[in-house]
């Protein structure tokens, strides 16, 4: 550690260094953030106020909307501040805090998507026992389990980060504090951190991935065995929105992960991160509102009431 100065601040590379682009980017991402909050908050309000939407499936959907609002709030406000100040400086404590919430919300979302897959499996493959299996106590316990599991997962990474010192002036090649890139600017031995990321990615990530997609193998097999075309269409429509969100989340996430770990960092790395952290929370409520008939009916009912007022 000789001749090394311990840093208290880190530098984020941001999306662009061009001064002329800071205001347009600020306005674009501010609009995206407001639309994300509005869309997800609208989903939550519809579920809370419409009795037809107060079922386990929509309870999980409302929870997903809350997680999307939290996830976008971890990255976008910080980005907006950097666009305004053009300094892109962040303290070590704030950076580690951001890592904590990013890991927490991303783990919560992937885990909740697995729970929602199980909910669709029970609804389609065991419809007669659905109300007995997916009663409210079970739903609440599943969501609490997801949150506790995600909390522990993020705390493990953060506790190890707190033991590191940072002394390299290299800017983080992102607009937020990404865990792997944070390790690159540490002058401590990060072998345990990297090993933990690898082990948890295999165990936790692989486990959640399997729990998310394996039920759909059984679901699709059950749907194909249905004799009535109308029944097959109705069964598939009940899980199409969720399956679309799952594919979008994992698709953008995997693309972002593999592209960011390429040897050369480029603008495409940041574009991939934008899709994963910014645009996914924005389009999730759009997918559910456009593909779900009950939500569209509930939304139209509220709009009609507002117009009459």
Automatic annotation (TrEMBL):
One GO molecular-function annotation for this sequence? G protein-coupled receptor activity
Spell out the subcellular localization from the entry. Answer: Cell membrane
InterPro entries from the xrefs? GPCR_Rhodpsn, GPCR_Rhodpsn_7TM, Olfact_rcpt, Olfactory_GPCR
In its keyword annotation, does this UniProt entry include Membrane?
A: yes
A single GO CC term for this protein reads: plasma membrane
The residue ranges crossing the membrane are: 25-46, 58-76, 96-118, 139-162, 191-218, 239-259, 271-290
Q: Which UniProt keywords apply?
A: Cell membrane, G-protein coupled receptor, Membrane, Olfaction, Receptor, Sensory transduction, Transducer, Transmembrane, Transmembrane helix
Give the bilayer topology.
Answer: Multi-pass membrane protein
Q: Where is the G-protein coupled receptors family 1 profile domain?
A: 39-288
Its main localization is membrane
Q: What is this protein called?
A: Olfactory receptor
Origin species: Hymenochirus boettgeri
């Amino acid at each position: 550690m000789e001749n090394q100065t311990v840093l208290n601040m880190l530098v984020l590379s941001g999306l662009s260094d061009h001064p002329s682009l800071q205001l347009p980017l600020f306005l674009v991402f501010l609009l995206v953030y407001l639309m994300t909050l509005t869309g997800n908050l609208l989903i939550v309000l519809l579920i809370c106020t419409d009795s037809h939407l107060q079922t386990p499936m929509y309870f999980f959907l409302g929870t997903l909307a809350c997680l999307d609002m939290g996830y976008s709030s971890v990255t976008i406000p910080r980005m907006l501040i950097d666009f305004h100040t053009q300094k892109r400086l962040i303290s070590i404590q704030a950076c580690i805090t951001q890592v904590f919430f990013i890991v927490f919300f991303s783990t919560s979302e992937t885990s909740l998507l697995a729970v929602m897959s199980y909910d669709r499996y029970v609804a389609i493959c065991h419809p007669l026992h659905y109300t007995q299996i997916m009663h409210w106590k079970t739903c609440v316990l599943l969501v609490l389990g997801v949150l506790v599991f995600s909390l522990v997962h993020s705390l493990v990474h953060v506790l190890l980060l707190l033991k590191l010192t940072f002394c390299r002036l290299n800017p983080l090649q992102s607009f937020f504090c990404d865990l792997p890139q944070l390790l690159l600017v540490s002058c401590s031995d990060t072998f345990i951190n990297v090993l933990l990321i690898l082990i948890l990615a295999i165990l936790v990530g692989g486990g959640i991935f399997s729990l998310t997609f394996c039920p759909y193998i059984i679901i699709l097999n059950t749907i194909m065995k249905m004799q009535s075309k109308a029944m097959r269409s109705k069964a598939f429509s009940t899980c199409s929105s969720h399956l679309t969100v799952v594919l979008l989340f994992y698709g953008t996430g995997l693309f972002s992960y593999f592209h960011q770990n390429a040897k050369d960092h480029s603008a495409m790395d940041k574009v991939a991160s934008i899709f994963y952290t910014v645009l996914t929370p924005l389009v999730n409520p759009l997918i559910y509102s456009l593909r779900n008939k009950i939500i569209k009916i509930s939304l139209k009912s509220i709009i009609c009431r507002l117009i009459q007022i």
